[in-house]
Amino acid sequence: MKRSNIALAAFSMTTLLLAACGSDNKNHHEGSAPTYLSEIPYDANKTQLPAEAAESIGAKSINVMTYNMVDVQGKIAKATAMVMFPKVAPPADGYRTVVWGHGTVGVGDDCAPSQNVLHPRFSILAQTLLKAGYVIIAPDYEGLGTKGIHPYLNLKSESLSAIAAVKAVKDRYGFQLQGDWMSIGQSQGGHAVLGIAEFANKDSSYKGTVAGAPASSLGKIIQSYIDPQFNLDDEGKPKAHGLNRLDENLQQVRYAVANGILTEEQGQEKINEIAYGYAELLAYAAFTTVGAKAQHKNYDYKNIFTANAAEIAELAYGRTGDDGACLSYPAPNSGNGLQEQFRAGIVDYLSNPTHKLADFGIDLEKFKKDPIVQAFLEETQPATNATESQVIKTPVFIIQGEKDQAVLPVVTQGLFANMKTNALKFFPQADYADRYKLTIVPNATHTQAIVCENANAVDFIQEHMSAGTGIVLTDADKDASQNSHCTGKS
């Protein structure tokens, strides 16, 4: 929305949804409510002074805004977002805005970024954007930090939470903002910002997105690890031993230990690595099934898990769905994180040398036959460009780590190719497909890639939406390639 339109005192939820969802009557909510509700200073859940928190990333202020959005049930619900203003003086026509989509944290309210200390990887990007003079909006997403279950990886919910947050900030700050905005996110946030690019298609003030390791094709990723039919030989056929990828790796480690190639200690280290990676996947799966309860109240979120893993999956939900375990916690509470709980369970299970991972975690047959899960995986796939109205028309920059084991490079490459193919299919005379860009970051893992590409991500934002402040960032301001969150070396 341009500055000339910001003078409207408030936006109704009906207006919000008409802008976000076009003429799809299924998305309209009868009645209206203000978008912006209130704001308080961010204090990392009372662990920091507001001024100290703001200064840590070079912000003038960080507030936690409460606003209205429409949830997955089509009802008005409260949501929260951090709003960060730069120290830089505003351009004559107002600040431009960048929305940050955070990665997976969990589904419990305590996991919400606005309830925790700023993540160091996000802080790297935030410092750069604030120094250039952008306002940053960082939504928690529906159900994180507010009442209700967080519908994890629900593309529409993530998108509408961000779009509503932008409208609420415009409502609150009016002429201090110029109106143009872009988005950038990592992992779940990469998934979210591709959704934003789709749902904001009709918003002329939306200028594009940067998606780091965007979560997609979760079903394919799960099966690539646990389905023997996805463990292929050089001829593209399932391997003769009939093991899935994880159990094949496990068998190789056990063989190496039995034959003295690895010591017992070295073998256990390898098993710990296998367990850690699989635990991450199981945590994502648990958050997904718990999140499905936001739409399907009676859904048994433990259905796709083996009995031994279902006990751990329960921790993702907690007692109410609002108090579930987070993906991870800082020391001294790191053992309480869902991924660590799964890792410990896997290691304990594998202490019996006859046990296989095919019998712990996700029950493959139940997973493939669960109608709610399978429908969810199809409905929430981002950037499909599946219909003319869904084709993303703004610039997109996708950043993918070569060594990413959570969002596999081949999956992201497939998503990118499909985006371009369908954009050309529906708009052969337009240049939408030429606006899409993908970079594979050599040797980078799931969390490293977007940090390593910080300079290029910021350049992309500045290219398509200048901050308008006249500030020229130096290479030193932008480059994070030597940061430990890129290199993996402390």
TrEMBL record:
Signal peptide residues on this chain, from the entry's feature table: 1-19
This protein's record includes keyword Ribonucleoprotein: no
GO biological process: lipid catabolic process
One MF term in the entry's GO annotations: triacylglycerol lipase activity
Keywords: Hydrolase, Signal
Species, as recorded: Acinetobacter suaedae
InterPro entries in alphabetical order: AB_hydrolase_fold (IPR029058), Lipase_secreted (IPR005152)
Record-given protein name: Alpha/beta hydrolase
